[in-house]
Amino acid sequence: MRKNCQFAFVILMFLGLLASCSQQATKYRIGVSQCSDDIWRDKQNSELKIGAYFHDNVELRFAAAYDSDKRQIQQIDSLVATGIDLLIVAPNQVSTISSAIDRAYDKGIPVIVFERKTSSKKYTAYMGADNYEMGHLMGEYVASRLNGRGRIIEVMGLKGSSPAIERHKGFREAISGHPNIQVVATLQGDWTEPTAYKTVKRWLDKNHDNGIDLVFGMNDRTAMGARKAFTEAGARLPLFCGIDGLPGENGGITLVRDSLLDASYIYPTHGDKLIQLAVDILEGRPYEKETKLMSALVTRDNAHVLLMGSEEVMNQSHYIEKLHQTASGYMKQLANQRTLTILALAIIALLLLLLLGIYMYYLQKARIQDERTQMEREQLDFYTQVSHELRTPLTLIEGPLAQLAETPDIMNASTATSDLLAIVRRNTHQLTQLINKMLDAQVGAPKSDMTSEEIDAITTRQEPGIQAHDIVPDEEAPTVLIVDDNADIRTYLRTILQGRFRLLEAKDGKHGLEVAREQVPDLIVSDVMMPVMNGLEFCQQVKSDVISSHIPVILLTARALSQHQIEGYQSGADAYITKPFSQELLLVRIDNLLRSRHQLRDLWSSRPDRTGNKPEEAAPAISEDQIENAFIGKFKKAVEEHIGDSNISVEDLAAQMGLSRVQLYRKVKALTGHTPVDLLRKARLTRAKELLTGTELTVSEIAYQVGFASPSYFTKCYKDEYGVVPGEARK
Ligand code: FRU
Questions:
Q1: Which mutation among 191, 216, 250 tests ligand 1's pocket best, with the greatest number of atoms within 8 A of CB?
Q2: Is residue 393 reached through a cis peptide bond, with omega within 30 degrees of 0 on the bond before it?
Q3: Fewest beta carbons within 10 Å, which of 58, 178, 234, 251?
Q4: pTM, rounded to two decimals
Q5: Following CA atoms 246, 247, 252, 258 in sequence, which dihedral angle do they give, to the nearest 10 degrees?
Q6: 551 and 697 share a domain?
Q7: Ligand 1 pocket residue status of 219, Cβ below 6 Å
């Protein structure tokens, strides 16, 4: 299980690693805050993007303020809030958005100011062209173009933006060196064409015959706005000069080539350089704090060539862009494939885990099976060994026994001795067969048990037949009934008891009950586990029948648990002896029980409680005493009724009580130790004694009255009983 977990952990780590490889985290987020949105900014933004392609993990976030200070401030703040790593900013005006730049810088974000300047000192680096120089060079060009003489209009860029300030300064300084060049008007623009158009139009409206030779717009769009106003006014068109010098449609170079502008000045965008500077700063490489971008004048002479070059550059840019798009497509595909690969690997890993689990399960199962087989084998070995061990002593018993049976001593010995030997031999043989069978079963099929029929076949004893026993010791010896389904046990008991007792036998409880009722034995020894009727029920029935209730019952059984003994005593048993039992114990118990029954009772006084050796804890369910008191009462009544009848016989008394002569005889004898005849005589003599002392009747009259046929026999019996003749008793 632990190995399984380790394996799963390794797989998960591996998958995690793959997943992390599949998506490289963006390292640098660069915010670009443009002050406006136009073709110059577009060019620069696309250069920035292309520049970023060459740097792994650079993400650009663009914002354009559309010439609004307020908007630019907001945009810078929100760029900072998104968690940029560096800010590139072209401030709309010099001082208006310094606060936002300061906030970014104070948060530890490096700031690159480019192209337009800021009054804030809180920036990391500056990159841009020299606008003063640009204005100055343009002034020189204009002067030279006009051959040092002419009237010009200057249309400014956005008020407060650094290029407008610096270009104006440079331009005017250059112009001031040419006294015949007159700046007729300086009009305020804002870098856009519509504003320039409106401003110039307004001026033209006021100054119809103006004789303007040249208009300097601070960028190409401004110059073109002025041109539009002049064209619309229908006035003679002066020369128009601008700045920016962009290639492409509406770009300054194209306009110069097409003679719409006289000249322009390339205002460098260089997004590539800007990105390089940003990455250098972010990656901690040395960088220039101030980078001046170089530039060049565009005139009709070089416009064509410049355009060709620029177009080439633009084509290259497009090509790179396309390449990038294709590459990103591939990258996406690759990422998808990687995801699929990871998924496949995950599924394979799970399958492997599953297989491993199944494998471990079967391994475990096999191990348990092996252990079980091993245990069974050991058990089998043990039984086999024990069986073999048993066979050896059994062989040593069986053999000598066979030899013993052949010896003359045994051959001539008593029936009891040969009976005993036969029991031992028969049972030894059965045991040997049983063990042989067990061995066969184990060797052949370890798990197949013998069927109950087989066991029965082996253990079924030969039934020697029930017999009232042949050795009868003497007529007066007590009778013992042996009840047991095992013939050998019966034979064995017989060998123990014969000679002392007259014996009766029965093979189960039902049979035993029949014998007990008929013969009324003096004592019963019974097994418990028997077919047809078990010993407990048998005992209960014996104790609840008036004929047999007085008979002591000894239960002889292998059921040794105290619960079994309690059950035995509850059924009314007088003693409970467990097998194997001692011969002496059995005999002593029988003697004790019989002795206690022989205690003479004075039938004609109130009967004392009988004493026996029954333990107190297990009183029988049926009160034997009640039955017997009732019996004695009934007997006394019968005797007293017939006390005067000299012809009454024991049969008559028995019949009156619903018993046979034998039953009455044995019952009365067992309870009192006297025969019914004795008791009848005793009753007559007791009555006679009463009559002698209590009446005036003669001895002869009394003799007849108490059922004596002759007075002389009465006198004899009276003397035998009381030691005096009736005549003396009267005195
Ligand atoms: C672009 C632009 C250019 C001009 C520059 C001045 O937004 O207006 O045309 O040269 O900005 O900053």
A1: 191
A2: no
A3: 234
A4: 0.51
A5: 180
A6: no
A7: yes
